[in-house]
Every structure is written in C-alpha cells, then in structure tokens.
Amino acid sequence: MRAMSFNDEKPIHTFCVAPMMDWTDRHYRYLARLLSRHAYLYTEMVTTGAILHGDKDRFLRFNPEETPVALQLGGSDAADLAQCARLGEQWGYDEINLNVGCPSDRVSSGRFGACLMAEPETVAQAVAAMKAAVDLPVTVKCRIGIDAHDSYAYLRDFVGRVVQAGMDTLIVHARKAWLSGLSPKENRKVPPLDYPRVHRLATEFPDLSVIINGGFTDLESAMAQLEYVDGVMLGRAAYQQPGLLARVDRLFYGSTEADTDIRACVLHYCDYVESQLSHGVRLPTLIKPLLGLFAGQPGARQWRRHLSEQGHQPGAGTEVIHHALTHTR
Questions:
Q1: What span, in angstroms and rounded, lies between the C-alpha atoms of 2 and 153?
Q2: Which of 8, 133, 249, 294 would be 300's cystine partner, CB 3.0–4.6 Å?
Q3: Largest distance between two CA atoms of the chain
C-alpha cells in the first residue's frame, strides 16, 4: 500500500470528496463531516474574480467543524490567485487547490479549468505565486490530458513543470477532457478512464503525493487504488450516496470505532438546520444534501419523497426531517 497512515496533526488525502459545483457547498460539507471525521473535503470551485470583486463572506465562509477543508480556486492570473490564496489562508482553510480540470465552456472562456493544461508555464507560475504567498499546501487538480495534448509524455512533462514550481499534491481525474465536441456532462462519462496512466505517474514521481479521481462508485473499488497511489477522491457517489462516508474512517484511516450511526448524524444535522434557518437559509437548501443519505437501505424512497414534498411547504422546519426519519430503520 502506497498510502500513509492518518496523522491527526497533519491530515492527508487518503480519502477525499471531490469539489463539485452546486453540490459540495458548506451545508453538504457539514453533513459530510458528521459522517466522517477524517475525509478530506473541498469547496466548490470559486473564481478569483468572484472573490476579489464579489461578496467575500458569501464565497469564503465555512463552518469551523468542516476542517480539514480545502479552498478550490479557478483562475489563471498568478497575482490574483496569490491574493485569493492569502485570503483563503486568512479565512482558515487548510489547503489551496487550483482547478485545472473543469471542462465547461464557461470555464474555458474565462481561461481557467482544463484549458490550462495547454499552458503548463501559466500553471507553474500560478502555483509558484501561491506558494510564495501562503504557508498552506498548494495543490492542483487536473485531467490526464486535453484534446490533442493527450499523450503520457505530455502529462508527465506538465506535471514535472508544476512540481518544479512547488506543487504539494496532485489530484488527477483519470479521463482526458474534450474541450470541443463534448458537453461537461459528457466529459464526465464519455472519455474512457485510464487508471494505469495515473499509476505510472505516481511511480515516476515517487516524492509527489498523487490522488486518483474518476468513476468510483463504491468504497471497495476506491480502496483497491491505494496499492498504486496515495489517495482516492470520490465525486458524485459521495454526494448522491453520502451514507458511504459513514464507513470511511474505519476503512481508510484505521479507526477502531464503529461505523458512524447515520440516524444519529441526522439528529445532529437537525440542530445545524435550526441554526441556519434562524439566519435566513431556506429549508430546501439544507435538505438537499440529505436526499440520498439512506440510498440502498429500507425506506430510502419514502425518506427522499417526504423530504422533497414537505420541505417546500410554507413554514416547514426540522419536523419534516424528523418525520422522514420514521420511514427508515
């Protein structure tokens, strides 16, 4: 096994939940942390422009209970990224991550995301600027290639240049991205997975922490990757079936405690919901991360239906969640 053991003083990325736009918001992350003490969490991607010219509290606020949590930035200007990294450090994040993997048209037109894999020097300069600006780890999330830049040699050279700039950890989505011809949704499924390419990268960069992402739907297949890489990242499976996280501490971090009691987590989350409702957050927003919590278990359909139907009713509160819980075991 390539991965190290968990150290409470220095969290490592043995198991991560991927940054996902419109999904991994602070409410989901709060629930995720109730389910797992050690899973490494990431914010949704936040652009440098949104932080520098928008509402910083809106884009940077998170719950202290979420830690360890990384701030994922989207951008290409080294000075802007350095400034946002400093703000992330001031707000208490544990890591700054640069998005070099998102294939959406909107991202590419803004010159950040996967299109930056065609500009290794730009990425290297950005990483170097962020490293000089903060004392936090600076990490990069990329694809195995884009469009015509899809050879292993290109990926190796790209990674080598960014390592020279000071990158601490590399997260690789094991698919290439087609920036022209495929939609963002298609880019999550159509390009074939190539795990061996990421394994080879980990072998050729033995001093670099390499995390693999892409296509994992269960914890067992994810665990098998630890023979080749330092950690694994789950995306949609961790959101659509958050109950998976209840087993993460035991399976990935060697916890001797029993798996997390999901029903108990729901009750704790209700306390959080009460506090958020008092600050004006809408109940449907707070219920959204709960919908798939009991996926695959008895009563899951009734749980989801009750939350979906009753959570939008005027004046609804945590009693909706408590009643939905009666449908589960």
A1: 23
A2: 294
A3: 59
Which residues are part of the catalytic machinery?
A: 102
- Report residue 239 as tokens: 């959101």
Is 54 a residue whose pLDDT tops 50? yes
The pLDDT tens digits for 210-252 are 999 999 999 999 999 999 999 999 999 999 999 999 999 999 9
Which range of residues forms the domain containing residue 280? 262-325
Number of domains in the chain: 2
Residues 200 and 318 in one domain: no
**Which residues, in sequence order, are CB contacts of 264 under 8 Å at separation 6+?**
none
268 is in an annotated binding site: no
Count the neighbouring beta carbons within 10 Å of the beta carbon of residue 58: 10
Domain boundary residue among 253, 284, 301? 253
Quickly tell me which residue has 């990425």 as its tokens. 123
What is the number of alpha carbons within 13 Å of residue 96 lying toward its C-beta?
33
Is residue 236 marked as binding? Answer: yes
Residue 117 assigned as binding residue: no
Q: Which of 196, 225, 253 is the C-terminal boundary of a domain?
A: 253
Q: Give me the pLDDT at residue 186, please.
A: 72
CATH of the domain at 144: 3.20.20.70
Assess if residue 26 is contained within a domain: yes
Tokens read off for 285: 């927003």
